[in-house]
Every structure is written in structure tokens, then in C-alpha cells.
Amino acid sequence: MNNDGNNYLIPANSKKSQLILGYFTPVDLVIFLIGISITVALLIMFKTESLPVMLGFLSPAIIAIFLTAPVPNYHNVMTFMGNIYRFFTGRKKYYWKGWCVSSGDNRKK
């Protein structure tokens, strides 16, 4: 085994260590806390035994959890939905290059 110091192992979750609690960006944390806070406040202020009303009270927390849930190849659902919006409104152009295309000029001189 070569121990010359040039072999580095980069953990798969190295980006995750930059997040709050390994899961949230500051914006995600604010959205999550606001959704949970509104739900807790509604549940404390109003007493109900009706299932539809209870689901209405729980909806801010459910929406916040949905928006901050991780999605493969994206940070979370909110990032994914933002990319979909930018694509379909034409605010950002996405170009398909494929995995084997070089970004430089490879013409022979």
C-alpha cells in the first residue's frame, strides 16, 4: 500500500457536513420552523375533533416538510421545483451535452 500522502478519500456526505444539522440550509430551516410553528400555534389555540379541520391545521407543517424533503440529484423538493419553473418559463437555458462531452476545444490543428 502506498502511503505517500497523495491518496485522499473524500466522504460521500462531505456537502452534508456544511448544512445545519446535516440537512437544512438557512432558508430551509426558516421555512421548516415557520411551518411547524404555525401548526403548533393552531393546535394550541383551537380545539377540534373534526378530521378535515385537523388536516387543515396540520397542513403548514406537512407543506414545510414536503418542501424541505430530500430528492435524488437535488438538495430538496423546493430546489427541484425551482429548476422546473426556470426551465418551463425560459428563465434559464439548459443544454444537453452528455457525460462524455469535453467543454474545451478539441479540434486538431
Q: Overview of this structure, please?
A:
- With 109 residues, this protein is mostly helical.
- It has a domain at 18-89.
- Helices cover 46% and strands 0% of the residues.
- The chain is built from three helices and no strands.
- Helix 1 runs antiparallel to helix 2 (51-67).
- The longest helix has 20 residues, at 26-45.
- The chain is elongated.
- The mean pLDDT is 82.
User: How would you describe the shape?
Assistant: elongated
Strand content: under 5%
Give the count of helical stretches.
3
The whole-number mean of residue pLDDT values reads 82
Helix content: 40-55%
The structure class reads mainly alpha
Biggest β-sheet description = none
Oligomer: single chain
Q: Measured on Cα atoms, how large is the radius of gyration?
A: 22 Å
Q: What's the total number of strands?
A: 0
Q: Cα distance, first to last residue?
A: 42 Å
What's the SSE pattern? HHH
Low-confidence stretches: none
What are the defining features of this structure?
109 residues, mainly alpha, 3 helices, 0% strand, elongated
Quick overview of this protein structure:
By secondary structure, the protein is mainly α.
Topology of this structure?
Layout: H1 26-45, H2 51-67, H3 77-89
